[in-house]
Amino acid sequence: MLKRLRPGPGVMQRLRHWTSELLVVAIGVLLALWAQAWFEARRDADSHRETIGQLDHMFHRALVVAAARMSTADCARRRIAELDAALRASDGQWTAMPIPGLPPPMRSGQFPPVYLADSEVLPTALFDLARGNGTLAALPPESRAWYEQAERQLTWLREAWTAGEAPKAALSLLGVDGPLGEAARDEMRQALVALDNENHVVVIRANSLARLARERGIAPTAEDLAAYREKLVRDRGFFGACVVEVDPLSMEPATPQGG
Prior knowledge:
The chain is mostly helical. 67% of the residues lie in helices and 0% in strands. It has a domain at 48-88 and 120-252. It has helices spanning 9-71, 73-89, 126-132, 135-138, 141-163, 165-171, 182-216, 222-239. The longest helix is centred in the first third of the chain and has 63 residues, at 9-71. Residues 96-103 and 105-110 have low confidence and may be disordered.
């Protein structure tokens, strides 16, 4: 009969050694994979926080600019109507109307400014970045829905401001002295219509932004309020007392102190 073979002490010792080595290697690989996943998750979380911070900063900026535009909305409507009437009544000559208190480069203007536009462009491409790096997908459904609504409002607002650049450029011709032909008057009146439409869009979008801010519990920071009041002072220098202070969270006239 065949005898059962038993491994000697040396073989068993080597098996135990190899098994220990394999366990050490396996544990090392698992730890490395865990560490890599942890670092990637932390990196993604940092990226998401940074992206959300950029989106929130843009929203705050837009809220301030929209509030400033709401403050001058009635002024703009009046000036547009006045200038339109003056253009219709013009017999081809334009009479210079100096504007007091303007900086020297702007003193050649022939009619009070009908509209003020901030040069800030809303970087709404940040929403594409937020989708691309997974920031929006990582948000709870309610938060994600809020940012999607904000994107729609900010995109419409950006498009309105971008579309208004051509009419503002056309109205800059008013700084030129001399005859004003019928075609030029018509072009300027068309530019006024475009700016009036833009003003209407901004009022609607400003109210929508304020509603979103209230829903999210956003409160303007001290920096936001300082930026708004800086614009308020600037705009009153152009438009005068018709500029009213509004509450950025309601877009309604602010309650006077003690009122």
